Sequence to fold (319 residues):
Amino acid sequence: MRWGVIVFPGSCDEQDVYDCLKRNLGQRPEFLWHKDRLKGKFDCIVLPGGFSYGDYLRCGAMARFSPIMQGVVEFAGKGGLVLGICNGFQILCEAGLLPGALVRNSSLQFVCRQVFLRVEETDSPFTCSGKKGQLLRMPVKHGEGCYYADPAVLERLRKNRQILVRYADSKGRSSPAANPNGSLDHIAGICNEARNVFGLMPHPEDAGEKTLGSEDGLKIFSSVVAACDKKEKKAWLG
Amino acid sequence: MRIKIFVCLKEGVLDPQGKAVERSLHSLGYQEVRDVRVGKYIEISLDAPSREAAEARIREMCDKLLANPVIEDYRFEISNE
Fold:
């Protein structure tokens, strides 16, 4: 399958995503420069973590106006898979591809540590290889990862089962202590209503091999690979 | 024209920065302080045929980029400096 990894000025995790896909899953991803138009055929576009445009004004506020983003919005509108990690998640929210916003961590501190994610839904192309309730261990590293949405939006997210992963402790329980940033409802990642756009704050690409302490991040990427296989694609569409 | 734009978090959106500033002010002895909210202040210069035209342009800029309507409110002042 064809992966595109967008590079914005200030992105810093694009190489991690690239290496993770290549080394651990045998994929052949391609870098896409933010100033270019989105050309060619892709199955999944990844917006990596980092500090696009220096996080000036608001995280992701300026990257959403990069030339490539228009193509990403059209790609998503046609059902193409879009995965935003950390700063990528922030950009997807700013671009209106995902509801809500990511604001300053409630602790006001930059947080860099391992967390557990509890898989809440498996009928999405990003979690279809996982099991409900399964715990995935991977790192977070961000200053603005506190998910916020007004009560009506939050209710819709729950009703449509768009909350794909929540923060939890090693036993799978959500609690303020297990929530690294104060996110509402312990939200670590959400998808859009059509379930083809997914954003999460933790970094699956930094948990792709044993030497990094965890291979759990591969669940996210291998789900995408499985979903892009025709048979499975129908499975997650239900 | 000179425009002063104030961007603030909406009511109901947690403002941990405001809370931290409030706690600091309390510890300095300013016990009367309540409801601290920290926002952004942006100044821009602009040529426009009229005040109304300038207002329409500024509102557009705020809705598109300067503020995020999901979490922020804004207001602005125009002067003929």
Observations:
- Chain A is about 25% helix and 25% strand.
- Chain A has one domain: 3-237.
- Helices of chain A lie at 14-25, 67-77, 87-94, 151-159, 218-228, 230-237.
